[in-house]
Amino acid sequence: MDQVRLPFSHSADITALRHAAEAALTQWQEPELAADSMIVISELVGNVLQHTDDGGELACRCGPDSVLIEVFDESKHLPDPQRPDARRIGGRGLLLVAAMSRAWGSRPAPPGKVVWAEVPRTV
Question: Which helix (H) or strand (E) holds 25?
């Protein structure tokens, strides 16, 4: 399996989504890096569920030396990473994504956008 695509919605069983993604990731990566990928997935999917009215789709693809994680949603608003603020709850998810990935970003993808991250496959 080189790729997995998993649609989700606000009413979806997110635990089942996580288990399906984790099953693929543990075939593609060292265990500790699969755990890093799961953190990235949790943050990106969580952002869709928190900041949009619709669900989205999680896509993970295994490359030669990394796993590309993409989360699609129908919102046209690109993420705006915030500086940490001790007075604000939350707002650190994209900092975690940046720390766990080799690179990350976002781009328009009609009808909305995709937020992606590239996580190394080996230590």
Answer: helix 14-28
